[in-house]
């Protein structure tokens, strides 16, 4: 799992990519939304509810498949969820994976809102129609259920069946697609959208568990979540890009390219918000360095590499200038 592959999560980009694989370009999928590819191709882009409804309608219309959500859900990969996905992938068990996912679910805002509850011998996910999808709600439910099966099976290399589904909408005209993918009792026209799982699967080990990588990814999730709640949107986008691309601390021109804009535009936006790019770089590096030192056993050389320094001596000097302290001052006692 190369840390350099860590990216931020953008749910819409996944859908655009999967539709492109089916022969439909982004303009077709985004028709009627007022959005362009440039608008959506940035970290943590979130369509408005009305835009999501238009996008889902376009996906169903273009594919002529009312249950396309099931197929799309089966195509999700753990890498589609950015750093949160890698935190899940490096967890020790499904229980730990569920906890980290629930804790940082805001990093992967999707089409629906889910509440994941474990109580006694019951493990259930409730899907809430936060976007008011109406007749398009089955798409969100089907995609989530199909995606859960796919990802859980991939994480553990074991079958991950759904035990039961209770859904608020009418049954489809043909249940074949439900029977084939979900293979469980399904009740329709229920008061809530509930999906039940076998609680014993919480003990299933994750096949690529790695405690050190998990700690690193969890700290990155924590940093991203905190930055999403404060600062300007531009500042959040820059910090998110830096945190999710370890070892890459590009020049302003390089950052502008990653953000799909001209360097002059980025300079103008920074000036308008009274931000200095080098200060953002230094602040982000300092915060990451402290978290790596306090919460991982990575060596100074490894941390320096993740922060974009070619030599550990350069990293030590930079850290001293940021904090006035030595690296060892932030290492917890053994």
Shape: globular
Low-confidence region ranges: 1-8
Strand content: 5-15%
Biggest pleated sheet:
5 strands, mixed
**Major sheet strand order:** 1-2-5-3-4
User: What helical percentage do the residues reach?
Assistant: 40-55%
Q: Which structural category fits the helices and strands? A: alpha+beta
How confident overall, as mean pLDDT? Answer: 88
Would you count the extended β strands for me? 5
Distance between the termini: 28 Å
Element string (H = helix, E = strand): HHHHHHHEEHEHEEHHHHHHH
Radius of gyration: 22 Å
Number of helices: 16
Descriptive notes:
It is a single chain. This protein has helices at residues 11-21, 26-29, 37-40, 49-63, 68-73, 82-89, 94-103, 137-156, 176-181, 211-228, 233-243, 252-258, 263-272, 277-295, 300-306, 312-323, and strands at residues 113-119, 122-128, 162-166, 186-187, 193-197. By secondary structure, it is of the alpha+beta class. A five-stranded mixed beta sheet has the order 1-2-5-3-4, with helices on one face. A hairpin with a 2-residue loop joins strand 1 (113-119) and strand 2 (122-128). The longest helix is centred in the middle third of the chain and has 20 residues, at 137-156.
């Amino acid at each position: 799992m190369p840390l350099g592959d860590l990216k931020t999560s953008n749910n819409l980009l996944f859908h655009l990519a999967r539709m492109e694989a089916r022969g439909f370009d982004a303009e077709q999928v985004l028709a009627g939304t007022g959005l362009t590819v440039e608008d959506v191709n940035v970290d943590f882009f979130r369509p408005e509810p009305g835009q999501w409804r238009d996008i889902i309608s376009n996906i169903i219309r273009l594919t002529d498949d009312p249950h396309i959500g099931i197929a799309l859900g089966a195509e999700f990969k753990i890498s589609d969820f950015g750093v949160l996905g890698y935190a899940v992938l490096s967890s020790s068990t499904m229980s730990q994976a569920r906890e980290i996912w629930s804790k940082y679910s805001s990093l992967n805002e999707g089409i629906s809102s889910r509440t994941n509850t474990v109580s006694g011998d019951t493990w259930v996910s409730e899907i809430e129609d936060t976007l008011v999808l109406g007749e398009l709600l089955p798409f969100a439910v089907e995609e989530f259920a199909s995606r859960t099966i796919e990802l859980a099976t991939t994480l553990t290399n074991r079958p991950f069946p759904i035990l039961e589904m209770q859904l608020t909408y009418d049954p489809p005209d043909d249940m074949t697609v439900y029977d084939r993918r979900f293979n469980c009792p399904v009740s329709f026209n229920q008061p809530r959208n509930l999906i039940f799982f076998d609680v014993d699967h919480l003990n299933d080990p994750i096949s690529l568990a790695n405690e050190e990588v998990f700690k690193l990814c969890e700290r990155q999730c924590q940093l991203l979540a905190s930055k999403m709640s404060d600062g300007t949107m531009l500042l959040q986008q820059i910090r998110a890009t830096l945190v999710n691309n370890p070892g890459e601390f590009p020049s302003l021109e390089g950052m502008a390219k990653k953000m799909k804009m001209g360097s002059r535009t980025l300079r103008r936006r920074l000036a308008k918000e009274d931000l200095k790019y080098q200060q953002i770089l230094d602040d982000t590096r300092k915060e990451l360095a402290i978290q790596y030192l306090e919460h991982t056993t990575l060596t100074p050389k490894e941390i320096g590499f993740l922060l974009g320094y070619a030599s550990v001596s350069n990293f030590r000097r930079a850290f001293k200038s940021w904090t006035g302290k030595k690296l060892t001052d932030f290492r917890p006692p053994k």
